[in-house]
């Protein structure tokens, strides 16, 4: 009996704990769930705040990158502009030097390199204005060359600029001589191109024959190359021959010209 009582007294507290725990477990689970629910908004808010921070940080990074890209593009544009300017200066220097080298090669004596600053208002390509004038030693009737070939004569002169009458102007007539046959004629521009007329019909003039200036009439110095014969345009009814001349000068792209200010020597 005593053994049974001791056993019950020993086991009873454990049974009580089990019974109370089983009765209270639903309430504890509800309380635990409630406690978790009460903390959930804080967790969600923390997550939302962290996400917004990342978004704003990304926006700032994008803005920084855009600013950097814009700065690099601006620097690249400046460098490109400087390169273009330096290239253009070098090209202009080469064009000017080319005119002087032709003067040396042809033994043309005193000459001045000039830059074209304006063209005739019409599409006839018959006159240009250069940036050299009387203060530079330019005078009326001075011969004008481009790349060593005769291009025209000085028509009017001011202090710091002059007008060049090109051989494409119908009002300019230039005496010429053919290098091989030594036949002479008169060069004048027309709708058909550069035409040399007044050539004796007895002279055979093949295509490619070189045409030079003649000093007859003292219009221009003699011996300046003009071009070559392109073809004969004489008809059966013509008493004298006419030929068309091909000049190597691109008259609509004139940039630099050489002004021959003194008579040629040894010609």
Distance between the termini: 160 Å
What fraction, in percent, of the residue positions are helical?
25-40%
CA radius of gyration is: 49 Å
Largest sheet entry: 6 strands, antiparallel, barrel
Largest beta sheet: strand ordering:
1-2-5-4-3-12
Quick one: overall form? Answer: elongated
Number of strands: 12
CATH homologous superfamily title of the domain at 106-260: Rod shape-determining protein MreC, domain 1
- Helix and strand content put the structural class at alpha+beta
Rounded mean pLDDT score? 78
Order of helices and strands: HEEEEEEEEEEEE
Strand content: 25-35%
Task: Count every helix, treating DSSP H or I runs of 4 or more residues as helices.
Answer: 1
Assembly of the depicted chains: single chain
Q: What is the CATH topology of the domain at 106-260?
A: Thrombin, subunit H
What is the name of the CATH architecture of the domain at 106-260?
A: Beta Barrel
Low-confidence residue ranges: 1-6
What is the top-level CATH class of the domain at 106-260? Mainly Beta
């Amino acid at each position: 009996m005593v053994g049974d009582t001791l056993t019950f007294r020993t086991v009873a507290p454990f049974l009580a704990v089990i019974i109370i725990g089983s009765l209270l477990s639903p309430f504890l689970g509800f309380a635990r769930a409630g406690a978790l629910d009460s903390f959930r908004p804080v967790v969600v808010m923390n997550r939302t705040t962290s996400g917004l921070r990342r978004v704003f940080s990304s926006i700032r990074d994008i803005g920084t990158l855009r600013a950097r890209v814009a700065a690099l593009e601006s620097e690249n544009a400046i460098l490109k502009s400087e390169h273009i300017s330096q290239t253009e200066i070098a090209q202009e220097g080469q064009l000017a030097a080319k005119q002087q080298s032709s003067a040396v090669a042809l033994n043309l004596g005193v000459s001045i390199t000039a830059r074209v600053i304006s063209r005739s208002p019409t599409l006839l390509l018959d006159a240009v204005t250069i940036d050299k004038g009387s203060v530079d030693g330019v005078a009326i009737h001075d011969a004008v060359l481009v790349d060593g070939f005769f291009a025209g004569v000085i028509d009017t002169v001011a202090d710091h600029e002059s007008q060049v009458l090109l051989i494409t102007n119908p009002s300019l007539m230039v005496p010429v001589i053919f290098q091989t046959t030594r036949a002479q004629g008169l060069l004048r521009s027309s709708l058909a191109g550069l035409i040399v007329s007044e050539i004796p019909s007895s002279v055979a003039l093949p295509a490619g024959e070189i045409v030079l200036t003649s000093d007859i009439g003292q219009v221009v110095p003699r011996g300046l190359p003009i071009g070559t014969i392109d073809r004969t345009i004489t008809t059966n009814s013509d008493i004298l021959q006419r030929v068309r001349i091909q000049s190597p000068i691109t008259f609509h792209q004139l940039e630099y010209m050489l002004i021959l200010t003194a008579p040629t020597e040894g010609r």
